Amino acid sequence: MKVLIILFACLSASIASAQTKKPAAKAPEKSAVVAAKLPGQLIYEQNCLTCHQANGSGVPNLNPPLRGTDWVNGDKTRLINVVLKGLQGQDIEGDAYDNAMPAHDFLTDDQIADVLTYVRSNFGNKATAVTTDEVKAVRAGK
């Protein structure tokens, strides 16, 4: 009988303790985290980050950096064509990179404009935005 009373007392104390504890704070909803990111950043994370890294540094001898290069900050048409057609066997600013970049022509004109604007304004870059109309013109061969 004493054992039952002791067990009951322990169980009651555990229940009371559990009821007074505050529930753990919930992690933010994924949609709230996603909403805080720029559209181009999301596209970058889904399609570019693996090769060009989170900070745009690339991988030496494999994938070129996206920071501080004329390929990113220079001619928009050339950069749009890289995304649309891919790139292979091209020295970039005097360095050879062995990985081929596949064409990303499956991205919409808006998505390409967003991701290139993101790249051209991040990683220390301060180049002008790429517009959807510029991407449309390059895709159409104009």
UniProtKB/TrEMBL annotation:
Domain of life according to the entry: Bacteria
Keywords (A to Z) from UniProt: Heme, Iron, Metal-binding, Signal
Signal sequence region: 1-18
Family annotation (Gene3D superfamilies): Cytochrome c-like domain
Domain Cytochrome c: 35-123
A Gene Ontology molecular function term of the record: metal ion binding
Keyword 4Fe-4S: no
InterPro entries recorded: Cyt_c-like_dom, Cyt_c-like_dom_sf, Cytochrome_c-type_DH
Cross-referenced Pfam families: Cytochrom_C (PF00034)
PANTHER family: BLL4482 PROTEIN, BLL4482 PROTEIN-RELATED
Name of the featured protein: Cytochrome c
Annotated organism of origin: Spirosoma agri
